[in-house]
């Protein structure tokens, strides 16, 4: 499901991306700002899993609250949570499947299906095969030091352009093999780039200057997006960004795990089984950690309109199978049941889940390590005086009234 965010400037944003929504919210509470920080961190590190880290962090804190209220020292919780995160990460590495050794065509086909799965829940999900093929072709065509962007490149032999952003300058330099200069004086051949053909093309109502035949064209790729509404284009760009990051991460790390909530359910099952070997009260804390991980498949069911309790019960029955084949069963959002996610190419890079576990655990531990909030009394009084000054505009300090107008009335609802 998408969210519509309307700010005080009149800007409207439609998105289901966790990092985008968290950035646009006017968050004041210091603990809540921690969730914004980990969402941004997840976005910058691996480019996906931003909603996951917010959901799991919130669930960790919710599960830990009863223990704090019962008098459990926060340090005991923190110690148990960090130990549990190590167990979870090791289990993820154990369950990860390598895609190394496959042919180029096999790997390309896998990446296209992975990108299509990523795009299936976005605004452009109806054309996911088209965009998935575009994303994979662009990503596999470039090298390690790449410039994959959702805008257009421009260049010419002697092209004069004004108000060019630094990002565009760096991109043109990377494509042509040139170097950005701050002055046109004393330019030498070593800093000049080259190309074979310059074209100015009309696309809709806009004109684009395009390079072709660049010496470093293997390190650049461009996708131009066009559409009706600005909100649609912005969300399409964000969706393609996540598809690109998923494909890039999968190609570079070469290890994937089952998606659709399968890996979360399997880690939860593993932790519940592990606590049986612990005789101390920390087993209660680990159990709460395991329960919190089930928030991912539960949310998948809720957002798809299915009965989460029924689906989770099926997954709990499937995962403990002695053969181990149940570890890859996750939520099927098409039928409302469960499915073998690897067979349907519903998987994600292992590094995304490992990063999410690390970030959420540290966020929960950080919040629980705070036992008191201290405010500066002077700053509070200054804010109160500023508010009173803003309210009073008449001689008596109260609001100035126009003749014939009744005084304002405050209604407390």
Helix/strand-derived category reads: mainly alpha
Total of domains: 2
**Strand numbers in spatial order across the main sheet:** 3-8-11
Helical proportion? 40-55%
Q: What ranges have pLDDT less than 50 throughout 5 or more consecutive residues?
A: 150-157, 394-413
- The radius of gyration is 27 Å
Relative strand content:
5-15%
How does the major sheet shape up?
3 strands, antiparallel
The CATH superfamily of the largest domain is known as GroEL-like equatorial domain
* CATH domain class name of the largest domain: Mainly Alpha
CATH topology of the largest domain: GROEL, domain 1
Mean pLDDT: 77
**Total E-strand runs:** 11
The assigned CATH architecture of the largest domain is Orthogonal Bundle
Layout of helices and strands:
Layout: E1 3-6, E2 12-15, H1 18-24, H2 30-45, H3 50-69, H4 74-95, E3 97-98, H5 104-119, H6 128-141, E4 147-149, H7 166-176, E5 197-203, E6 206-212, E7 220-222, H8 230-253, E8 255-258, H9 262-274, H10 282-293, H11 295-304, H12 308-318, E9 329-332, E10 337-340, E11 347-349, H13 350-368, H14 377-391
Parallel strand pairs: 4-7
Antiparallel strand pairs: 1-2, 3-8, 5-6, 8-11, 9-10
Tell me what the structure shows.
Belongs to the TCP-1 chaperonin family. Keywords: ATP-binding, Chaperone, Cytoplasm, Nucleotide-binding. GO terms for molecular function: ATP binding; ATP hydrolysis activity; ATP-dependent protein folding chaperone; unfolded protein binding. It is found in: Cytoplasm. Its main location: cytoplasm. With 413 residues, the protein is mainly alpha-helical. The chain has two domains: 3-99 and 257-368, GROEL, domain 1, CATH 1.10.560; 104-256, TCP-1-like chaperonin intermediate domain (GROEL, domain 2). It has 14 helices and eleven strands. The protein has helices at residues 18-24, 30-45, 50-69, 74-95, 104-119, 128-141, 166-176, 230-253, 262-274, 282-293, 295-304, 308-318, 350-368, 377-391, and strands at residues 3-6, 12-15, 97-98, 147-149, 197-203, 206-212, 220-222, 255-258, 329-332, 337-340, 347-349. The strands form five sheets. The chain has a three-stranded antiparallel β-sheet with strand order 3-8-11. α2 (30-45) runs antiparallel to α3 and α11 crosses α12. The radius of gyration is 27 Å and the shape is globular. Residues 150-157 and 394-413 have low confidence and may be disordered.
């Amino acid at each position: 499901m998408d969210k519509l965010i309307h700010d005080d400037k009149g800007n409207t944003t439609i998105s289901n991306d966790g990092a985008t929504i968290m950035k646009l919210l006017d968050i004041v509470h210091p603990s809540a700002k921690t969730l914004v920080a980990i969402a941004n961190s997840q976005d910058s590190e691996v480019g996906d899993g931003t909603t996951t880290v917010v959901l799991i962090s919130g669930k960790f804190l919710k599960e830990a609250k009863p223990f704090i209220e019962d008098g459990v020292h926060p340090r005991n919780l923190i110690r148990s949570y960090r130990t549990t995160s190590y167990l979870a990460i090791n289990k993820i590495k154990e369950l990860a499947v390598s895609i190394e050794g496959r042919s180029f065509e096999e790997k390309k086909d896998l990446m296209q299906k992975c990108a299509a799965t990523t795009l299936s829940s976005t605004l452009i999900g109806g054309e996911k095969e088209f965009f998935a093929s575009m994303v994979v072709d662009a990503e596999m065509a470039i090298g390690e030091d790449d410039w994959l962007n959702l805008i257009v490149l421009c260049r010419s032999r002697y092209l004069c352009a004004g108000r060019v952003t630094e990002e565009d300058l760096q991109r043109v330099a990377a494509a042509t093999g040139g170097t950005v200069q701050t002055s046109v004086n004393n330019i030498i051949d070593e800093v000049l780039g080259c190309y074979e053909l310059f074209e100015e093309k009309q696309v809709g109502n806009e004109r684009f200057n395009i390079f072709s035949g660049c010496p470093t064209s293997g390190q650049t790729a461009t996708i131009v997006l066009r559409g009706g509404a600005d909100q649609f284009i912005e969300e399409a760009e964000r969706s393609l960004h996540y598809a690109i990051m998923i494909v890039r991460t999968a190609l570079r790390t070469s290890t994937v795990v089952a998606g659709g909530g399968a890996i979360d359910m399997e880690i939860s099952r593993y932790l519940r089984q592990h606590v049986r070997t612990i005789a101390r009260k920390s087993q209660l804390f680990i159990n709460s950690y395991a329960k919190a991980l089930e928030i991912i498949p539960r949310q998948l069911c809720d957002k798809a309109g299915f009965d989460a309790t029924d689906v989770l019960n099926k997954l709990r029955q499937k995962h403990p199978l002695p053969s181990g084949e149940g570890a890859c069963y996750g939520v099927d959002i098409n039928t409302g049941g469960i499915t073998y996610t690897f067979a349907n190419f519903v998987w994600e890079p292992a590094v995304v889940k490992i990063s999410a576990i690390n970030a959420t655990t540290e966020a929960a531990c950080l919040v629980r390590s705070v036992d008191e909030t201290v405010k500066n009394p002077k700053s509070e009084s200054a804010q109160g005086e500023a508010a009173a000054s803003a309210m009073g505009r008449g001689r008596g300090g109260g609001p100035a009234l126009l003749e014939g107008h009744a005084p304002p009335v405050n209604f407390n609802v």
